[in-house]
Amino acid sequence: GGTVSFISASRRSHMGGQYGLSEDEVDIMTGAIKAMKTTVKDIMVHMDNVYSVPFESTELNYDTMADIMSKGFSRVIVHKGDDPTKVVGYLLVKNLIVLDPEAARPIEKEWLKTPIFCSPKDSVLSLLNAFQGGKSHMAIVSHAPRITEIEIQKALAAHDPHPALRGAARPLGIVTFEDVIETIIQEEVVDETNVQEKKANNIMRRYIQRQLEKKRRRKLQMNALEASMIQRHSTMKNFSMGEIKEDKEDSGIC
């Protein structure tokens, strides 16, 4: 529109002009104006493309932890059964670092965080206001966000979480706080928390990879030892049978 064109025209020249707007200022102002017309649907990640793990069948062992860490996400959606749209909450990956993969613990309900909820028709700016409430940095998108929220809260309060997310309450996708900020400033957000989480995830991933390699080597050693014992047992058995045969021949027993 005219406002965006005016802002772009106010950009400082590359010759080091003293007046006008910097590149970053123009990008942020342009992004903020565009965000007024940008909807959640425009920036959400559809559920088909969302990485998630099942609540009841996931064991946080070496393989699962390595898979989660390899994705590079700071939050992971948790769903019920085989349907990724039956969301029950999400895990903060950084909280998994304290777990011992050797214990292969199941996901506990108390670890799950509750997202906020929005409609695909909501504007990006309205979602930004919701995120600024500080409740969560992840949003679940559905045509009936209030019903979706109620059903997920009911499921988490139950002994066996089983959200009734059907029809308009069925999740369509997710949006994170970072997605909204990047839409407005039109640049990728890499803050101190992201860097620290990535460092922690990399450390954990390397640790898990080392443990998996040790586990693989132990398995190979055990297989070799088992094969050796079987061979030794077979040799001893053949040797014993040979002695018995010789004793029978010496004693004249037929």
UniProtKB/TrEMBL annotation:
Keywords: Membrane, Repeat, Transmembrane, Transmembrane helix
Cited InterPro entries: ACDP (IPR045095), CBS_dom_sf (IPR046342)
Subcellular location: Membrane
Gene3D superfamilies in the cross-refs: CBS-domain
Mode of membrane association: Multi-pass membrane protein
Tagged with keyword Transport: no
Keyword set includes Repeat: yes
GO biological process: intracellular manganese ion homeostasis; magnesium ion homeostasis
GO cellular component: cytoplasm; membrane
Protein name stated in the entry: CBS domain-containing protein
Gene source species: Heterosigma akashiwo
